[in-house]
Amino acid sequence: MRSTDTVARLGGDEFVIILEGLRAESEVERVGKSIVDEIGRPFDIGGELLNVTTSIGIAFESKVEASETAQSFLKRADASLYVAKTAGRNSYHVSGAEASRT
Predict the structure, then answer these.
(1) Which of 7, 19, 34, 52 sits at a 20 to 30 Å CA gap from 28?
(2) What gap in Å lies between CA 14 and CA 4, rounded to an integer?
(3) Overall number of domains in the chain
(4) Distance between CA atoms of 87 and 76, rounded to whole angstroms?
(5) What is the model's pTM?
(6) Which domain holds residue 91?
(7) Is pLDDT of 100 > 50?
(8) Is there a domain that residue 41 lies in?
(9) 40, part of any domain
(10) Dihedral of the alpha carbons of 62, 67, 71, 74, in degrees to the nearest 10
């Protein structure tokens, strides 16, 4: 993550990452793929390799409307998360876009 990014735990196993300054959906997709790939690497815990999967929901707008609240943005990300989960593990989905990785 960059020094300008914010990462926070929402609760349980859900996290939110706020990325500022991304201008194109391709940049957002690159971040989603990178996170899925990194989480997908086996973790060595006490000499035992553990595999973890992730599903990521992404809300992206190149220009956020003044009427959109943080809560509505999180709702869109949450809806995208459920699309990614339906597609299977180790996937991401960008809201309002046809593109998703499964």
Answers:
(1) 52
(2) 21
(3) 1
(4) 17
(5) 0.79
(6) 6-101
(7) no
(8) yes
(9) yes
(10) -20
Tokens of 6: 């914010």
pLDDT tens sequence across 40-57 = 999 999 999 999 999 999
**Cβ-count burial 11-38 (b if 16+ within 10 Å, e if not):** eeeeebeebeeeeebeebbebbeebbee
Sequence-distant (≥ 6) Cβ neighbours of residue 99 within 8 angstroms? 25, 29
How long is the chain?
102
CATH number at residue 63: 3.30.70.270
Flag whether 16 is in a domain.
yes
Confidence of residue 99 (pLDDT cuts 50, 70, 90): very low
**CA triple 40-42-44, angle to 5 deg:** 145
Domain assignment of residue 1, yes or no:
no
Tokens 């990014």 belong to 5
Measure the CA dihedral 88/5/64/60, to 10°.
Answer: -20
Per-residue pLDDT tens for 27-43?
Answer: 989 999 999 999 999 99
